[in-house]
Amino acid sequence: MLIPYESLYGLFLKQEIMPNPIEFLKEAKTELLKVVWPTKERMIRDTVIVLGISFSTAIFLGLLDFAFETLAKKFLF
Fold it and tell me: Mean pLDDT across the stretch 51-76?
């Protein structure tokens, strides 16, 4: 479905780029105060999980690569 050019005019061209930088910074600070930051223990646990999954994936893909390389050498070369 095509969007008429006139409807896009209202989305992009009528808006000001940054009406008030000070107001933007105040709103950004307010939003950052609402963020629930993770605890140190949670960050460590999540980091270990990501590293474990990454390591497991690397081992799995390495084994697949070795298997396909072996099969290619045996049957193609």
Answer: 96
Rounded to 10 degrees, the C-alpha dihedral 8/13/18/20 comes to: -110
Contacts with 24 (C-beta within 8 Å, 6 or more apart), sequence order: 18
- Cβ pair 18, 24 in contact under 8 A: yes
CA angle 64, 68, 71 (to 5 degrees): 140
pTM: 0.58
DSSP string, 2-50: PPPHHHHHHHHTSS-S-S-HHHHHHHHHHHHHH--PPPHHHHHHHHHHH
